[in-house]
Design goal:
Layout: H1 9-14, H2 21-32, H3 38-51, E1 52-55, H4 63-74, E2 88-91, H5 96-103, E3 109-114, H6 124-137, E4 141-145, H7 148-152, H8 156-169, E5 174-178, H9 187-199, E6 204-206, H10 218-235, E7 240-242, H11 250-264, E8 276-278, H12 281-294
Parallel strand pairs: 1-2, 1-8, 2-3, 3-4, 4-5, 5-6, 6-7
Helix pairs in contact: 2-10, 3-11, 3-12, 4-5, 6-8, 9-10, 10-11
């Protein structure tokens, strides 16, 4: 259920502390230089794999591609059964039934984008129907997009009400709210949008659709991690963060894990509270994992092309 926001949304959101843009960028750059010792790198890579939302969101998606990705989500490296499964598979609503059948009994989550992804430019009735359809077909997580036009125009109530309505239609499914931070222009807007989504009932705040540049950046992730940390301190409710788009290498993933530990804390170093949305990251994580175990990389044909 959404929280009670004191006073008007505009007064509340604009009353949040401003973001020190220079300080955020400097802090993110500093944390990006932190190294992970070899003894801890294997654990970090395995944790990153368990945090991946393996994603395919293309107009050319087919049932066969979704089934293949579901198999990879459950067993990322068939040659190494110690490789953990990913957190979830993320697909379009019309592919949820196919993915649900393929993932049945595996414990891997099933996320569906909804609410007019990626633009969000459709009616609330359509957004709610799409959400309900995806949940009925087996989605355990819904990734919704906010109306960025309404947010940027200052119509915070519309955005808030749409999130709460979608949350109600999620049933038992978790709700990830995509802010599309590349279109929000300022870090202050990222902070405001994060707090708005959290008060409206979001289980996660997510950076991007992956269709807009820039997508996930370390400074933006830092601002969002501060938001969930401070929101828990203020309300007692914990929510997660999902950076998505542009995270392609194991080095990128580990930088995000360092950020999580230093900004939000160890409680968020868990797939229940932090995810990495990616379509190509998993292969690099698997390659680095093999290198740590054998001393050499697998051949170019060792992993499937997603």
């Amino acid at each position: 259920m959404p929280d009670t926001v004191p006073g008007s949304l505009r007064a509340y959101l604009h009353g949040l502390p401003g973001v020190d843009e220079v300080g955020v960028r400097r802090r993110a750059a500093d944390l990006a230089t932190r190294s992970v010792k070899t003894t801890a790198k294997r654990r970090a890579i395995d944790l990153a794999i368990r945090m991946v939302d393996l994603t395919t969101l293309e107009g050319a998606d087919t049932p066969g591609k979704v089934r293949a990705l579901a198999a990879k989500a459950m067993r990322p490296d068939p040659a190494d059964l110690t490789a953990p499964p990913v957190a979830a598979l993320c697909v379009y609503p019309d592919m949820v039934a196919v993915a649900a059948e393929a993932l049945a009994g595996s414990g891997v989550g099933l996320a569906s984008v909804a609410t007019g992804f990626p633009s969000g430019r459709t009616s609330l009735e359509v957004k709610l129907a799409e959400t309900a359809t995806a949940v009925a077909a087996g989605a355990t997580e819904i990734d919704m997009v906010i109306d960025r036009g309404a947010f940027l125009a200052g119509d915070y109530r519309k955005v808030f009400d749409e999130i709460t309505a979608v949350k109600e239609h999620c049933g038992q499914a978790h709700l990830k709210v995509i802010l599309e931070t590349g279109e929000l222009v300022t870090y202050d807007n990222v902070r405001r949008a994060s707090w708005l989504a959290l008060h409206a009932g979001a289980d996660f705040v997510k950076t991007s659709t992956g269709k807009v540049t820039p997508a996930a950046t370390l400074p933006v992730a830092l601002v969002m991690l501060e938001a969930v940390r401070d929101y828990r301190a203020a309300t007692g409710r914990q929510a997660g963060v999902k950076p998505a788009g542009g995270i392609r290498t194991a080095k990128d993933a580990i930088r995000h894990l360092v950020l999580v530990k230093e900004i939000a804390g160890d409680d968020w170093l868990d797939p229940a509270w932090f995810r990495l949305g990616a379509s190509t990251l998993l292969n690099d994580l698997l390659m680095q994992r093999t290198k740590l175990g054998t001393g050499h990389y697998g051949g170019p044909d060792h992993y499937t092309i997603d």
